[in-house]
Amino acid sequence: MSVVTTTNLTRRFGPITALDRLTVELPAAGVIGLVGPNGSGKSTLIRILLGLIRPTSGSASVLGSAISSPAHYASRVGVLVESPAFIPGLSARANLVSLARLRRLPLTRVDAVLAQVGLIGRDREPVKRFSLGMKQRLGIAAALLTDPELLILDEPTNGLDPAGIVEIRELLRDLGREGRTVIVSSHQLAEIEAVCDHLVVIRFGELVFSGPMAEMMKRTREHIDIAAEHAADLDPLEAALVAGGWEVTTIDDGLRVAAGASRAAPCPRGRPSSTRPRSRAASPPLTTRASSTATSSRRTCSSPTTAWSRSSTSASLPTGRRSPSSRASPRSRAPRTRARCSGRPATCRRSRRPGSRRMHAPTSSRWAWSSTRC
């Protein structure tokens, strides 16, 4: 029995053909991998099967019902398209309870799906504390609320770390062992190979392969495709490869050499001696650099643009103003002056913040302020 059947299914978006006369049959029970590069039409096929978009031409059926009437099979299909969306402030159980009430499902299904995806014990925590892998598990639990015959997951491991990928992989295997039909869309061949029983490969909207994973592995072989810069070089190159003992076949735009990993040439990974970095001993010690920096700091401090000035003499006022009399009130201040700029920031030994716009220092009778601007 086939759970999904498509016949010459075509979908165009303006000048772009997302699906080109796709004809495929997917068997019941087990995990089915829908594989293809980004933009190959995987998500478009899933949206057509769910009734979210209409095909340009062709026909398809899901669980024996035509896609023109998705209401006939909607309750028997569970879907997780891209990343799940939940209320962050609510717990995992509260989110599932709200979904079960909206669908008029018994609340006993909430406990069943939480145990099925392994979230018992964490179901009282708010979703905002969940990791990405736990959120994916919760999304699968929401898709399993209706106890569906067919489960469709679009990129369930997208953005997960290796630990999260292993968790989702084990969960998909358990769902397949229960007798459900799980369709997993992904572009990661290693993950599909590890979990799927049946494989469908789509490239640029066209069907490349459909069949058991074991048959696909038998047809798989390692090879190297060679394209010459000039067409006249292909014949001498083929003769040289054949003379060297390689198995060579001619393809449309070059040569194909059957070469496995066992015949790969060793690649030296050591760094040449000429490009090795200098040892730490060759560089000047850290104490030397620190001492020179401290010396330059002291020289700057003794520069004529120092921000410190005394109010007891008139020479400390570059603008020519005289300081107030020493008999003035202790609360009185000397007039704010502007020092000449020599291109270097004003610093001082006693100041904790060199180059400050305003700095002051105690004198014999009062405070004297100066400002340095460049």
Q: Could you tell me the number of beta strands?
A: 16
Give the rounded overall mean pLDDT: 74
Strand order of the largest sheet: 6-7-8-3-9-10
Give the overall shape, derived from the CA principal axes: elongated
Estimated share of beta-strand residues: 25-35%
Helix-strand pattern, N to C? EEEHEEEHHHEHEHEEHEHEEHEEE
Specify the CATH homologous superfamily of the domain at 2-219: P-loop containing nucleotide triphosphate hydrolases
Task: Give a quick account of the main beta sheet: strands, pairing sense, barrel closure.
Answer: 6 strands, mixed
Q: Please give the oligomerization state of what you see.
A: single chain
The amount of helix comes to 25-40%
Q: What's the helix and strand layout?
A:
Elements: E1 2-13, E2 16-27, E3 30-35, H1 42-49, E4 57-62, E5 65-66, E6 77-81, H2 92-102, H3 108-117, H4 132-143, E7 150-154, H5 162-177, E8 181-186, H6 189-195, E9 198-203, E10 206-212, H7 213-219, E11 223-226, H8 234-243, E12 247-251, E13 254-258, H9 286-301, E14 337-339, E15 359-362, E16 367-372
Parallel strand pairs: 3-8, 3-9, 6-7, 7-8, 14-16
Antiparallel strand pairs: 1-2, 1-4, 4-5, 9-10, 11-13, 12-13, 15-16
Helix pairs in contact: 2-3, 3-4, 4-5
